[in-house]
Design goal:
This protein has helices at residues 3-11, 26-39, 47-51, 58-66, 69-85, 97-106, 119-128, 150-161, 175-184, 198-204, 213-219; strands at 13-16, 23-24, 92-93, 111-118, 137-141, 168-172, 187-191, 208-210. With 221 residues, it is α/β, with parallel strands linked by helices. Helix 9 (175-184) links the parallel strand 6 and strand 7 (187-191).
Amino acid sequence: MSGPAVMQAQRATLFFDLDGTLIDSEQGITACIRHALEQMQHPVLPDEVLRRWIGPSLRTSFAPLFNDEAKVEQAVAHYRDRFDRHGWREHTVIAGMEQVVRALHGRGHRLAVVTAKNEPHARRIVEHLPFGGCFEDVIGATLDGTRSHKPELVGEALRRLALAPAQCWMIGDRHMDIEGARHHGLRSVGVLWGFGSAQELQQAGADVVAANPTELAALLA
């Protein structure tokens, strides 16, 4: 990263994706998807397929399986029922991310979480993270799905925090994070410890890719 880009990062507000960027939530998410499919009497999908569901909105992933809006909503409800009882706790913090977030917060960055997870669940998770207090706000999907894709979520974050796109960076592990940033003209960092690949992030147009949290901290320092 060039000197001017680093200076821009130093002045930026940083939007963090949640799943795959701050936490490893594979266990909880895939268990809830399996529960929903079982309740809908649909064959459970292989683990490698379920892993790719982490990032997009639930309705986007369920829609091709059922091709029926009412059934999609039923599947989402089954997912949320288990997530509300168990799934929200079934995650681990990505090693090193607490130190990175605290350091960025200590340098005076404004930080927010921008996630396709529904906002009440996202807020509950962030509030229980040991470093959750570093985040000024948590922007997530609406329960009815009217705001669920990353361009909409990034736009809502800019509105709530009264920010111009040039002031912000989006940090995430999937192509949706990068595309949401590009839609609004934000700079973006793709991270390789989540659920996406370097190829996916680069093809989506990430400005830079970080291999680990230590590298992310260096890029933003």
